Structure formats: structure tokens, C-alpha cells
TrEMBL record:
One Pfam family in the UniProt entry: Lactamase_B
CDD domains referenced in this protein's UniProt entry, alphabetically: AHL_lactonase_MBL-fold (cd07729)
Metallo-beta-lactamase domain: residues covered: 46-252
The organism of origin for this protein: Paraburkholderia elongata
Protein name (Swiss-Prot/TrEMBL): MBL fold metallo-hydrolase
Amino acid sequence: MTVSASLSGTTETLVKSVSLFNLGTLINDQSSLTMRRGMGTRVEVPVTGAFIEMTDGEHILFDTGLLPHNCERDDGADPCLSMKRFSEMIARYERQDDIRARLADLGHTPEHVKIVINSHFHWDHSGGNLLFPHARFLVQGSEYRFAYQPDSFAARPYERAYFDCDIDYELLRGDQVVKPGVAVLTTPGHTPGHQSLMVRLPSGPLMFMTGDAVFCPANLEPDSPPGNAHTTEQAIASIARLRLLCEFFGGELVICHDPDFWKKWQPAPHRYI
């Protein structure tokens, strides 16, 4: 479990603020959050994203949420048709939960987003990709390859129409500093190429956006790993890595699907500085 010097050796940051987006809610079985625990218990979990406002104007978006309302593609395809197969999992997705509306809450438009970082390509994290054709997209190469040819038992959460939308993805190979104060961390397990995000606020503290590497705080305990990981052993190792980084450098884990997420965090237009 190593930490690159390029990730840990500087406190410089170009981050101006971080805002957390409330992008709807899903219904899951508790056992998908905590392996073999709570089977048959339905739990509502948030869909979240993060907008990182940068002092140089190259604003960053972490995950794009569910498929936008009234979506259209230049090639004439209708990705909305594929949304129907996920409809039974959606508890709430109103127009104010559309990522465009959440950006507007901050006084921004999709055109203001210059970099998009997908934690992975599951349908609830890449649905809005088609709104940002002008942006740089950063994804792990292992995730990109797996998404196009996933193992059969792991194929359902991948909706190709969402991520295969005329975007020239930049394929990463491991940890990488994106800009001063923002770095991707490889956290495989939930999917083979999952990545999380480390952000240093201008006031100094770090925020660790877990994506789906951690589903709920219970996963931080060794006996309660996530229940829907592609590779459980990797998932456990990634959770341990995030926990170590958070404890060593100080900061907060932003556990993106935590059912109690909005009891701890304030949604946009609040800005964490």
C-alpha cells in the first residue's frame, strides 16, 4: 500500500471551493452495501457528485449522475430508452436533480466544466457524460476496457449509451495529480478500474471523494465489506488505503452513497472552502 511522493509532498492547491451535488436517490438492498447483512431490507441511497471550482477557471466535475432529463445525442440515438431498465431502482429523480440544474445553483453551466473525472462507468455515475463533449475526461484505462467488455455477472450496471458518446477519454494508469490540489487515487474492487478523488481545500484540509469504493461507514470495519464488489479482496484493500490516507494526512472521507450523506454534508449551493 504505497503513496506516491507526487501525491503526498505538496500542500499547494488551485482549488477555490468544493460543492456537493444532490442528484437523486436510488433504492438498494442493504446487502449490496454490507455483504450478507440486511438481506431483504430496502434502503434509499443518494446519488452524488462534486464540483471543484478552480482559481484558474478550469473547473472539475467528479461524476455526472443519472441520465439528464430530455437528453439527446447528435447521432440520433435515444439513451433515454435504456433508462427504463433502471427505473425500478430510482426512488427520486426530479428536474432539480439534473446535473445542469445543480450547476445552475452555483451560477455555472456545463460549458464551465473543463475536466470531468468519472469514478467509474456505472449508469448512475456516467449518465450526464454526454452534456460535456467539450471537456477533458479522465478515466482509468482498466475501467475503460472493462466497461466495453465486462464480465457477464458485472455487466448490468454498465449502460454503453451513457459513456460511449463521442468522447475522447484520456486513459490513466494509476494515481495521478490532475492539477495542484486535485489527484485521482486508484481504488479498484467495486469495478476493476474504479478511482477516487483527493482534493485539498484552500483552507488546508483534504476531502476524499470515495465514489463507490466505500458505500457506507460500516464498510470501514473489516467485517462489513461492500456486498456488490467485482473483486471483494481488492475492494477491502482500497477501503484500507483510503482510510490510511485520510488518517495520515488528515481530512474527511466523503462516502458518496452513504444513506445518511445529507445529515453530515451540505448540498450545493453551499461551498466548502
